[in-house]
Structure prediction request, 415 residues.
Amino acid sequence: MDGTLTHPDSARRLTRWRADTPGSSRLVHLNNAGAALVPRVVRDAVSAHLKLEEDLGGYEAAESQAGAIQASYGAVAAVLRAEPRNIAMLQNSTLAFAQALSAFDLGPGDLVLTSRADYASNQIMYLSLARRRGVEVIRAPDAPEGGVDPEAVRKMIARRRPALVALTWVPTNSGLVQPVEAVGEICRAADVPYLVDACQAVGQIPIDVGRVHCDFLAATARKFLRGPRGIGFLFVSDRMLERAAHPLLIDMHGATWTQADEFVLTPDARRFEFWEFPHALVLGLGAAARYAAEVGLEVARDRARELAGYARERLATLPGTRVLDRGPELCAIATAAIEGWDAVEVKLALRARGINTSSPEREDAVIDMDEKHATSALRISPHYYNTKEEIDVAVQTLKEVLSGTSGRSGRDTPT
Prediction:
């Protein structure tokens, strides 16, 4: 780490970030990989537009804010080092991922190459394609140190060219950071389409889609980007736009009905959107993206990772607690299995004491959790506005919870 927690400006910046985040004064929020606390500017952007809808009407409010809405595309694009034309706004990351997946006419004989650590919803989509369309799904092996093995991906592509490579950047149940750029270089060299799930990467990892070499990248607002729930986005490369890629089911926003049996695609990534549109949330997302850029994505990455590393160190000192994170690069997510406990119960016990965490279960990452011999995990995901003192409070409180009988799996309900 680069010691960002002890940077000369750290105290001043931290004071400002926490002042911009009223919730941070009332609780210890260590669930930023679930949904971060939004800064005031995000709340204000959403509230202001809802007030306009109250005063003017929904259609009229949207038309009056056309410039600000367009600026939100620019703010999100800047986070990815992309252009506004390459951004589509969608209700969540999973829908964005599904829209991208549906752009490929996959059928019998087609191969989707993915990883063992891909997100559960994505794995289910792949399996659904296999069941309904006869698509073959193959998972590349992991490297010995953890994470998908790029060299194995290279060899598998050389042996049999897949119709699509799809990869989750940061899994839901782990601090692992997958080598998406290395895999992207392989896909680009082989001219294989590449889809990246960056749901847990955007906002905590600086992203340059040119370096990732992806054709599609799906993400959400609510996690480390600190935007509102209910909105996500999809990056679509110029290569895909030029090839007229579009989702299977497209509406009158993504295309124009020109003749009885003809339509013309919307020229940019908005062909992946739908006509019904959450304008207030898009404005909130734009505000979140601008705030993230102001904080600095490198600053956010370094502070959050340093805090997560500290959390792993503290968790490892607790009896019966096993830190699960492994890989050559770890991010702002620390996970641990607790012997004899269901992590859901631990999470609820901590929440009752003003500490927010989360609790991925086996069904969220079947392959990885089975390999780690874990049925559930406690997930602590700090962000740049958190502090080491909050980690200390969380771990001490966890120690107190574990030292009693309240909350133990099969025993008393936590209070």
Notes: The chain has two domains: 4-30+297-403, 42-293.
